[in-house]
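Case study B.
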Amino acid sequence: MTTSTPRRRDAEETRRRLLEAARRRFSEDGYAATTVRDIADDAGVNVALINRYFASKEGLFEACLRHAGEELRRSAGDVPLAGIAGRIAEQMTGAAEVPAQLSLLLRTSGDERADEIRRAVLLSSAEKIAAAAGRPDSDRTLLRAELLLATTIGLALLRWTTPIEPLASAGADDLAEPLGDVVEALLGAR
Amino acid sequence: MTTSTPRRRDAEETRRRLLEAARRRFSEDGYAATTVRDIADDAGVNVALINRYFASKEGLFEACLRHAGEELRRSAGDVPLAGIAGRIAEQMTGAAEVPAQLSLLLRTSGDERADEIRRAVLLSSAEKIAAAAGRPDSDRTLLRAELLLATTIGLALLRWTTPIEPLASAGADDLAEPLGDVVEALLGAR
DNA sequence: GAGACAAGTAAACAATTGCTGACTTCACCG
DNA sequence: CGGTGAAGTCAGCAATTGTTTACTTGTCTC
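Model:
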């Protein structure tokens, strides 16, 4: 076996802990408001190791964005158009993992590369939605898919970052119905 | 006449200039990433005056939020349900004043009072939309109104903060149609 | 015009920021 | 077992942060 006893010195493990702590901090407090010492303390790791493993605070942030992108892409899966609303409703009300990744993805850092990653992830999500719609006229469809993405993003914000009632405590069932209407209106047949 | 010669010392004027500079900086860069020196320089004003007129950086931010709230409430006006989509489309593609206020409103600062203001403005906006729908079952309607608000917020983000094509350069006409569908789906009769 | 008070300035403060370099300690291999 | 390189520590750096304090300058009134 490879991971028998938990080694007291494990580069891979500390890297992972740093990433996890950073994701939570960046997601909750934003980039500028988060200090590398906060992250290191949360991870139970020395501050200097951030620079060793990620070169800089910005490097760590970019790694977080990449992770969030993969996570979102994975969680999206391949869902037919009819199932999209329910999927969004589930993930918004579920373990709060997806909203967290989403809110992380929306945090700005002033870093150019971070912006690039952000844009790429968002655009690819929209394209995935558009593909599920299976329509011609790809440009109009893509715009409508991006509007659905906008709804999802706004939903995450109004539940996670600045909770507003009754939306904040609505269950998956409460959300699925109106979200279904939106999906139908934006991308439904005809 | 009251404003004959532009006085070189005018508390009201410098207050105004500070607020304007702060709104732009906070809106574009976020709270934590903006320094009081940035704001003061933009306003062409001494840094210490921020603390004199607004007590603290947080005080200045709260003043900005209040201003954004009034501005948004004013720009919303009283629009019948059928006109909402067009109104949103206009303001998103117009002078970029409204998206700027919106993105300012969504910036977090860790300040408790700021959160309170934010929440109040957002909730009152949602209530205004719900009222325009003129439906019974106020709770379900309010949730649907908040979903439309979520769409608007996400739209502002995907045009202003992290521009995504083709949504970012879509004109008012391009937006009005799909937005109309969303409004109809969420709050339309039946 | 002189005095008085508000408006604006300059400098410095204590704290915090991201980051670095020299050091120590552990784990593994021959 | 011993040494060798990676993993982790420590202290401190230079820069920047929000804020305050003591000061100067403008402007209005009597």
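Residues 7-9, 35-37, 47-48, 50-51, 56-57 of chain A lie near DNA strand C (CB under 10 Å from a C1'). The remaining cases will be described in the next quarterly update.
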